[in-house]
Design goal:
Elements (H helix, E strand, L loop, with lengths): L5 H54 L5 H14 L6 E5 L4 E4 L1 H6 L14 E5 L6 E10 L2 E10 L1 H49 L17 H49 L5 H32 L8 E4 H19 L2 E5 L6 E4 L1 H17 L6 E9 L2 E8 L21 H6 L6 H11 L3 E7 L3 E9 L10
Parallel strand pairs: 7-9
Antiparallel strand pairs: 1-2, 1-5, 3-4, 4-5, 6-8, 9-10, 10-12, 11-12
The structure holds adenosine-5'-diphosphate (ADP).
Length: 471
Amino acid sequence: MKARSIRFRLTAWYFSVLAVSLCLFGAAMLVAMRQSILHAADEELEARLGAVHRFLERKVPRLDEEDLEDEFREHSGLEPGRDLLEVREPATGWSYHSRGMERYNLAPPAKVALGGEPRFYTAQPKGSRLRVLEASVTVGEREFLVQIATPVEEAFHALETFAWLLVGFLPVVLAAASLGGYWMSRRALAPVDAITRTARRISAENLSLRLEVPETGDELARLSETLNDMMRRIEAAFRRMTRFTADASHELRTPVSIMRTTAELALRRDRSPEEYREALEQILSELERTSRLIEDLLTLARADSGIVDLDLQAMDLAGTVRDACSQGEKLAKGKGVEFQAVVPKGRFPIRGDPTALRRLFLILIDNAVKYTPRAGRVEVRLESRDGYAVGEVRDTGIGIAPEDLPHIFERFWRADKVRSREMGGAGLGLSIARWIAEVHRGSIEVESEPGKGSAFRVRLPREPGDGGGRA
Ligand code: ADP
């Protein structure tokens, strides 16, 4: 038994409660039985006192002391169990002792004052036990002191036997109950031990291990299910994290090896200043791309750790979208793609972080231009719908296959890795865009048809309530 195990504590509590209850019960029983014995004896004594009183009333006016004594002897001899009687008349000194009374040699009934209240007490003469009633009885002008007794030895003996039985059996009952209690708590808590054993075996290497769920449907079954759910979430998060780390390292390795190769090639022999410049420009372009990637990784890492360093404030979304569009227009122009922006003229007030929302629209516009061939068309719209600001970026580009649609917001996911990388994408843009929308309590939806084009729709509540803020 472990010192502080629940099993031990349950058994100890069970033992204590049972011990106290049994002791209280035993004590109450003994007191009640004793009271009942005394009550029965006292009732009998009272009845006998009444009989003696009536007897004296009948006999005293007619008989002298000697005859009275004979009458008493005859009277008490006739009724068995009624021979414990003593009657005295203090005025004359006359007295009668039954034979039984002589045997016990009780103290004479001197304690009751004449005319006083009757008195009951228990005496223990010669190893026996008697219940005694002392009373004064008035007959005409004469007063008698009467002492009547009844043996209660047998009843008290039975009571003591019962008390000893209680004392003797109490430890046995308690020991048996405690063992039973220990066994029951052991049985009830066995699933907890199983949970502990399995939980001990779970580590980063075997996160797929699950606890056995007992079919009882009780608290322990619910606990196992809850822990299993938690394990599932931890495992998914752990897998996401390891995949993210692996993908990030992979993405960083490519530009680093390009820069290294370029530098090594340039240094292999003497080169003209133009050749050096070209190599440095190539390295610079890879560096720019790498620092963009690192920035994106940092944004997502911060998002994962719950850091929301956005400053949600009253802002004009139309201005922000116009700003993103003017940059998008340049990109489109460079690629020979037609660009159109339909943005309300005035202010479009919402609560949000202008820098983050500008980044969100730039990601969508940049993608639209990237995945739309020359002579295609990109259109950006901003309007208000059902209390939401709805921004739409629509293109006539290559589109997204239906089976790819569920994945496009996943990190590092790209429909065509080589092509996307060539265009400078690492597959993080849409993950970041969705995160920004969610921090604003908004969402992003996409509709796309391969070969025809795509439409990304951002919905942002005009009043995001307590959604985010600087964390
Ligand atoms: P990337 O940096 O590769 O553009 P994103 O997360 O922005 O990463 O996009 C993920 C993938 O979704 C892209 O690689 C591309 O396959 C697809 N995609 C995103 N936007 C569009 C679009 N407007 N048209 C076609 N495909 C798109």
